[in-house]
Design brief:
The structure is a single chain. By secondary structure, the chain is an alpha+beta fold. Helices cover 37% and strands 20% of the residues. The protein has helices at residues 40-56, 97-109, 140-150, 202-245, 249-264, 291-296, 305-311, 330-336, 368-414, 462-482, 486-500, 586-590, 600-614, 620-635, and strands at 11-13, 114-117, 122-124, 136-138, 161-168, 171-179, 268-274, 281-287, 315-318, 340-348, 351-360, 425-432, 440-447, 450-458, 507-515, 520-526, 532-534, 550-552, 570-574, 580-584, 644-651. The chain has a six-stranded antiparallel beta sheet, with helices on both faces. Strands 8-7-11-10-9 form a five-stranded antiparallel beta sheet, with helices on both faces. Strands 12-21-20-17-18 form a five-stranded antiparallel beta sheet. It starts with 10 loop residues before the first strand and ends with a strand.
Length: 655
């Protein structure tokens, strides 16, 4: 066999020059006559230069042009069929150096030599009129005649031949051929068949021909390996491109299976994935096997040992499923006509997400390189599947975010668009959600010359809290317009919330109504943080405000939405010029720094006293700004876990 491990075994035949199907023929009767020594030094020099350039297409020295053909018509050229054919020596030729080298050897030795492909046709070093290539294909009688006549001899179609096969691992490609004996310059002269004794070149020329065939075989074998590797890399590149595109999962797996079947040259296969919601294998694509096979062979072996091994990352193979003791359905295997199996899992971050199985219909022992290739295809397929899934999740997340942004816009429109101008009251407020949607709210309600102030906080955060907040706000506004008694207002809001919400949904709220003429404040609480009233000392007191100047508004009841029978007592407070009313949600006091400490009520009071001590005439907006500044100074860049709402009202001095 013509590989790097040895030389090709020549074939001697006494059949006439006719197509022989790759040079296989019966052994000749008798031994070939001996030949004088051939000019081997020149042959060795020409051999290496021509083979690599002629087969691999590389640059290199070229043989001198062959002598002109004898006068007479050129042999008729054969046109190749466009249909697929088994590999032949013609598939590896580029510039025709190998047939040209044979012509050169014939010129040097006087012995005809030609190249026969596996179909029995002859390749000659003459430009093809049909294809423009520097070599042509003719039938064997025409090719043999041409070679004999170029050597200056007379063609005898009955003469036997000495053929050395050109073979690679997949089978024969063709052969190098020369006559065992042939007509000499003058018929009947010399040795057998009219050729001078020893004219065949004997063992030296045969040896040279065997070395040439071996070298050509090695180059062709290398070319096959390169082409296969390029094919494999092309398949992996296509998978990589799919990974970047991250399209539909079913389409990805179908293409991946098709590529695996093509590059590993198997007859069929299937690919399944583990659906996240099912945690079981679901067939996504199959090819070359029947639907019955796919559905009836989820488990091929007892206990699923092969499947478990594949899902663990192994590449498992079965050379013959018909006789393997691990296979529990051999009759189904025979009915489907399958023989060999190779399988591995689709793993992402060492976690199985699928399984690929490939089958052949003839016995096959898969090489280590093929195992590695299947593993590479499986790994890239797994990455593509996860990429597609992540893309789907991202698209869904983006869709939800768009909806959340729309909801947040609606929620912001529920807050007062402008601060009301109600002399002598100076009002300011700020709402800072921890997420796009929050559960805090504040409101100013015009009540026929009176002003209602609301600060609320519903349980939770996000979409659910925002929806509950809108329900509480709408209910409060509806009842506040019709009912004067604020205790009754909160009782009705509470009853509605208990009726329409779950047990774990509730809200805290503070509601106060101010008469701008009398500065009388009527208020009611529902489980909310107690508001503060800071009453700065008079200008003539000569001191800054202190803790004794802070008053808590403590009239309170249970949070809304818990007990439908709950009553909410109200409180009264008489405001005066210079007073500062501060209402806020627990997000202000519960804010933490990096050490986990809370901002707390003490720091709220300290911030109020600090700004009023430094700026006794500070406006409501200035007070809000200062409190938030102190909160930022305390919390830094630590993540806030709750919404923060702050409402400040200051009673201005009468002018």
């Amino acid at each position: 066999m013509p590989t790097s491990r040895g030389e090709p075994e020549p074939t001697h035949t006494t059949e006439p020059h006719a197509p022989t199907g790759g040079g296989r023929a019966a052994a000749a009767d008798g031994a070939a006559p001996q030949a004088p020594a051939a000019p081997t030094a020149l042959l060795d020099a020409k051999l290496g230069e021509a083979i690599g350039a002629g087969l691999a297409g590389g640059a290199g020295p070229r043989l001198p042009p062959p002598p002109p053909a004898p006068a007479g018509p050129a042999p008729p050229e054969l046109v190749e069929s466009p249909e697929e054919h088994a590999p032949s020596i013609r598939d590896f030729l580029t510039d025709g150096s190998v047939p040209a080298l044979c012509d050169e050897l014939a010129r040097l030795t006087g012995v005809p030599i030609w190249v026969r492909d596996r179909s029995g046709d002859v390749i000659i070093a003459e430009r093809s009129a049909a294809t423009g290539r520097p070599w042509s294909i003719v039938d064997e009688p025409a090719g043999a005649r041409r070679a004999v006549e170029r050597a200056g001899r007379r063609y005898d179609p009955r003469a036997g031949v000495f053929a050395v096969p050109i073979r690679i691992s997949t089978g024969p490609l063709g052969s190098l051929v020369m006559p065992l004996d042939g007509a000499g310059p003058t018929a009947g002269e010399g040795g057998p068949g009219g050729m001078p004794a020893g004219a065949t070149g004997g063992s030296s020329l045969e040896r040279a021909l065997m070395l040439l065939a071996s070298s050509v075989s090695e180059v062709c074998e290398a070319q096959v390996a390169v082409r296969q590797r390029l094919h494999e890399l092309g398949s992996l590149y296509r998978l990589s491109s799919m990974l970047a595109q991250a399209g539909d999962v079913d389409r990805l797996l179908s293409v991946a299976l098709e590529l695996a079947i093509d590059v590993l040259r198997v007859d069929g296969g299937s690919v399944a994935v583990i659906e996240p919601e099912k945690e079981e294998l679901t067939i996504k694509a199959y090819q070359g096997v029947s639907p019955t096979w796919v559905t009836s062979t989820q488990t091929l072996t007892s206990g699923g040992v092969l499947r478990k091994g594949a899902l663990a990352g192994e590449v498992v193979t079965v050379e013959d499923m018909r006789t393997d003791e691990r296979i529990v359905v051999p009759e189904v295997v025979r009915e489907e006509g399958l023989v060999s199996l190779i399988s591995t899992g689709l793993l992402y971050n060492n976690r199985p997400i699928g399984l690929i199985r490939l089958y052949t219909r003839t016995a096959r022992r898969f090489s280590a390189a093929q195992r590695v290739l299947l593993k590479s295809i499986a790994d890239q397929s797994a990455a593509a599947v996860m990429n597609a899934r992540l893309r789907t999740l991202r698209e869904e997340d983006e869709r939800i975010q768009r909806q959340v942004r729309l909801a947040a816009d609606v929620q912001r429109r529920m807050l007062p668009r402008a601060i009301p101008n109600v002399p002598p009251l100076d009002l300011a407020a700020r709402y800072s959600p921890s997420f796009e949607l929050g559960g805090d709210f504040y409101d100013f309600i015009e009540l026929g010359g009176h002003l209602g102030i609301v600060v609320g906080d519903v349980v939770g955060k996000g979409v659910a809290a925002a929806l509950l907040m809108s329900a509480v706000r709408a209910s409060l506004r509806a009842h506040a317009q019709d009912v004067y008694d604020i205790s009754q207002v909160l009782s009705r809001v509470n009853a509605a919330l208990v009726r329409d919400t779950r047990d774990n949904e509730f809200a805290t709220l503070w509601y106060g109504v101010i008469d701008p003429q009398t500065l009388k404040l009527t208020y009611c609480g529902a489980g909310h943080e107690w508001p503060l009233v800071v009453r700065p000392p008079s200008r003539g007191a000569g001191r800054a405000p202190g803790d004794d100047d802070i008053i808590r508004l403590t009239a309170d009841g249970m949070a809304l939405g818990i007990d439908a029978t709950q009553q909410y007592p109200h409180g009264l407070f008489q405001l005066r010029a210079g007073d500062v009313l501060v209402a806020y949600t627990d997000g202000l006091t519960d804010s933490t720094n990096f050490e986990g400490r809370h901002f707390g009520g003490t720091r709220v009071r300290r911030a109020l006293l600090e700004i009023l001590g430094r700026e006794p005439e500070a406006t409501a907006a200035r007070i809000v700004e200062h409190v938030f500044w102190q909160l930022r100074q305390f919390s830094g860049l630590s993540r806030r876990i709750d919404d923060v709402t702050l409402v400040v009202m200051r009673v201005k001095d009468a002018k």
